[in-house]
Design a protein that fits this description.
Layout: H1 3-19, H2 25-33, H3 37-51, H4 54-64, H5 68-85, H6 92-123, H7 128-152, H8 160-176, H9 194-197, H10 209-237, H11 249-252, H12 254-268, H13 272-279, H14 281-301, H15 308-336, H16 342-372, H17 382-403, E1 412-416, E2 420-424
Antiparallel strand pairs: 1-2
Helix pairs in contact: 1-6, 1-7, 1-8, 2-10, 3-6, 3-16, 4-6, 5-6, 5-8, 7-12, 10-15, 10-16, 10-17, 12-15, 14-15, 14-17, 15-16
């Protein structure tokens, strides 16, 4: 079988698993189980908690002990077991631990999928820069396909969404054992300090004022990402209680509407090289924060009827909000880091966004929504929720501009050879 097709199948299933439940678990949580927002925030924090340590630990294991593709397969099988257990859980406390274990299985597979793909392409003397992006884009397509599957089958409030995700996880887990071998790269006797293993050496980047400011705002943007993942689909579902909106397209198929965000993401990623070269990381990150402001602000005033255009525009803006901070931020870390700690520096970026930022975003937003934006009958003040989130993003942009003093050289980032970044910046 063609190698590219095999890697496409891997990436498609990798994100299909996540897309089957990530944006719809809120509807299941509030409309099926009727549990509180605070406990829901804790559930979404499991992704961040797992990201704090599991990718590094599994990376060390793959580097030293076990073939990456085999470890990848075992993790997906373990994740499938936990996803299949989710519908059996009847209290939020137990659900927290089930989802935490599931995330501990899933989060390392994102990095392992990249390692397996890179190794396979290099073994065939293929160009990573040219050949990998068209393969990776099928991951986003898989995420969209899962959203549409869950929505068209009307499973957004049903436990069946977790069974679909579990089935895909089992399938990918077994399929992984057929992928090209990716053996350990480090000798068993090579010494590596605990500091290097955990990626803590990258914290020296905080000595530079600009990098410290950058990582702090990356954390705050990571929190913003959690807000939209956690509450976007639930927001649209709640319009079903309003007679004027209950039969609208956005209420019947909210996951399909939300999938516009992922479609937009695949398009905006193509514009990043131009924006980075022309305007630099400071402008690009500021644009991202303003895009988050628009993302939340349009949600605040949109509705599934006459205001549907605002919701659609919010989803389109999401592509810029996400890509301009996530992808551009990763490139900036690459160009600013000492080559000896580039891997751990990227790990630090992931910890600050998907780890610390995700945990804070989940827990704080859950508490605030319960305390200030939930009515006595359990309904939520969505206008107030989204308006508050929008002001949060706007405050970030206002503070970021004077605090981050990086100067841009119009030479910008460019790719040299096989994926080596050559960036001219002051």
């Amino acid at each position: 079988m063609n190698l590219k097709f095999r890697l496409i199948a891997m990436n498609f299933l990798q994100f299909f698993i996540w897309g089957a439940w990530l944006l719809t678990i809120g509807a299941y949580w509030f409309q099926n189980r009727h549990w509180s927002g605070t406990s829901f925030g804790a559930i979404f924090s499991t992704m961040g908690i797992a990201s704090l340590f599991m990718p590094a630990l599994m990376g060390v294991l793959a580097d030293r002990k076990v073939n990456a593709e085999k470890l990848y397969g075992l993790l997906h099988i373990g994740g499938g077991v936990m996803l299949a257990c989710v519908p059996l859980v009847n209290d939020p406390h137990t659900m927290f631990w089930v989802m935490l274990v599931n995330m501990c299985f899933y989060m390392p597979t994102i990095a392992l999928a990249i390692a397996v793909a890179y190794n396979a392409l290099k073994s065939r003397d293929m160009d990573i820069v040219r050949d990998y992006p068209p393969i990776r884009v099928w991951g986003t397509i898989g995420f969209i396909a899962a959203l549409w599957t869950t929505s068209l089958l009307k499973l957004e409030t049903s436990p069946a969404q977790f069974y679909i995700a579990a089935a895909a996880s089992f399938a990918l887990g077994l399929y992984a054992f057929t992928l090209p071998p990716c053996p350990p790269r480090l000798g068993r006797n090579e010494s590596t300090s605990l500091v290097d293993v955990l990626g803590l050496s990258s914290f020296r980047l905080f000595r530079d004022r600009n990098m410290a400011v950058f990582f702090i705002f990356a954390m705050l943007l990571g929190a913003a990402l959690q807000l939209t993942n956690a509450y976007g689909d639930t927001f649209l579902h709640d319009f079903a209680t309003v007679p004027a909106f209950k039969n609208t397209l956005a209420v019947k198929y909210p996951a399909i509407i939300m999938s516009i965000s992922q479609i937009s993401e695949t398009l905006f990623i193509l514009t990043i090289p131009f924006f980075l070269r022309r305007f630099g990381i400071k402008t690009v990150m500021t644009i991202s924060m303003l895009a988050w402001f628009l993302r939340f602000g349009l949600f605040a005033y949109g509705d599934p009827g006459p205001g549907l255009w605002m919701i659609v525009m919010s989803c389109i803006v999401y592509g810029m909000a996400f890509d301009f901070f996530n992808i551009s931020g990763s490139l900036f870390v690459e160009q600013q880091s000492d080559p000896r700690i580039r891997a751990s520096a990227q790990g630090l970026f992931m910890v600050m966004t998907n780890g610390v930022g995700a945990v804070l975003g989940s827990l704080v937003s859950g508490y605030l929504i319960d305390a200030f934006f939930t009515n006595a009958d359990g309904s939520k003040d969505w206008h107030g929720i989204w308006s508050s989130f929008a002001l949060y993003a706007l405050a970030m942009a206002i503070l970021f501009v004077p605090l981050f003093r990086h100067r841009h050289d119009a030479g910008g980032p460019r790719v040299v050879g096989h994926g080596v970044m050559d960036v001219n910046s002051a």
